[in-house]
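Suppose a colleague, Dr. K., hands you the sequence of a protein chain of 652 amino acids and asks what its three-dimensional shape might be. Before reaching for any lab equipment, you can write down a predicted structure in token form. Begin with the sequence itself:
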Amino acid sequence: MSKQREQSNFFVPTGWSVDPSSKAPTIVSPKGDLAISFVELAAGANVQETALSAWRVVDPKFASKPRGQFALPRRGTWDEMHQIVYDVPDQPSRLDIAIVRRLASRAYVNLVRGSETAINRRAAQLGEAIHGWKPAEYQEVSSWSAQHGQSLIDFIRSAMAACQIPGVAIAVVHGGRVVLAEGFGVRSLGDEEPVTPRTRFMIGSMTRPLTTLLIARLVELGKLTWSTRIRDLHPGFALADPAVTNWLALRHTASAPTGMPGQDLELLFSDAAITPEQRIAEMKNIRPAGRGEPSQYSNLLVALGGYAAARAFTSEGLLENAFERAMAALVFRPLGMNDTVLRQDEALDGDAALPHALSFYGNTSRIPLNMERAVYRVAPAGAAWSTVLDMSRYLLLELGDGRLPEGDRMIAREILLERRNDGVKIGENARYSLGLTVSNDSGRRVIHHDGATLGFSSDMFFLPEGDLGAVVLTNAHAAGSFLRAVRQKIFELVFGAEPMAEETIAESVARTRDEIAQRQRSIKMDPASAGWINELTGRYVCDGLGSATLARRGDGFWIQFYDSGSAVASEIQPNGYRILRLISPPWRGSLGLLVNLEAKTLTLDAGHIKYVFERQPPASGVVQASQVSTCWTPDSRNLAMNAIGSTAAERK
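The predicted structure, expressed as tokens, is then:
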């Protein structure tokens, strides 16, 4: 369990120790494969001279030659920041690094020595130790000003118009309080009710940090630990691999080192009446790649952990009710998140936004609310509806190291921070820990999570060393570029980051325009091009996804699944493959079913598994379909696997 104690004016992560023999304050990792020294001294004539003086405080014989030096983006009131990497010829797997920060005439030098593997594995603890060490006169971020707020508001309005986003709400927190809370646009196209800071939005995978906060509170109460096995909390649980079944613990459901495949298509297209108990029982057919292997983005795995933890809170009732009671008692009520709920009917009882997505023709339109029902089978992974004011209270808890905005302690600091440690590497500068992504953004340690459903997109981030955070909620599908641009704009205003926000929006708009034009060239709906679809009409059944009915509707064709349907159009590829393209929003041609005219089958490709819909004879019983590998359906894999969660690109 991660715990940190204060040693002089720097922190020692749990399990680390202070080296009493070092000539400068030095902390050492639990395995002894990484050490960080803290040396304060007068700044030398240049950076390398300053670093060498620091090294010789720790090791008078130090004589390694610099391999490379580069300036780090200046943050806060540091006058300059640099990093130097040294050659260690006799130990090629080891790195010696000096991080030199100057403030006036004094230099603050961190000397890092260890294996490259250890540095990557403990990047979060390394960053926290280094950035937490600073003089009293240092200021991480200038105070948020009215000018900052107005500049951000102007940018959001312009970007919303360019990206066709109906409604947005944002809250920015700094210095222990909310410094900006605004709503923009409308809750739904057509009724013109305005968005306010109290408007509820679906937050998708931003529910995950709230779920791991629930688990952390249960850890503090002694109900479980992060190492508690799932089968001990949910005795009937099983995967197709007995070894992984026995090994799988709560920690693994939140950070996903199990090789678990993502199977979100089964959530999107099968019967919404399936209960969490039934969904977990079906996991006995899933065979993960194995322990230690990174998972795909698995909403089912996160849901399993949340439901199992809820069983530690109460053994009574259905899983969905147990989870709802646990979240209300241990997270929502203590935090004062009074407008945050897990059920759609409660969310819509009041000020709530409705879902939207771009159409095949490039305009934003409403999508049916019932398309969002899929997420309720995996509620701990993405079912919450919340407001920016409620989520700002969560951000202030994180920035307050476990204290509520009013100053009372809700959770112990060391237990809260455990959720940010180590994790699975998901990019060059990012790791996915316990429901939180920890990344390096231009020299700044940023902790964040985004979320997406079929008609909502959201983002939340905070910088512990900058005492700054923000949450942005939208009622538009696939608004990742807009959200990244808003985050970038905040960094530009506060930290003087490179101006890129406007360029991000312009590139996104151009990319979307080109994508729509390309799809309109290849996907056809006119009778001459799509007439062949007529011979495929009928009822289909797929093992895993259930039933689908393809029928004529007006001058075109429609396919209906359990809770959602879409108009379909024709794509005939140069290689002769025929594909039925779903063109209603949010799919707008990105999702396709490959057709076998002879066998009368429709195949949906999810990458690791192919779902085959077989046409049923009229008035016949259900025929079970098999899963075969026969086709390629471009674009369907990424969109469907990430429809309930965040895309890999958005998580970086």
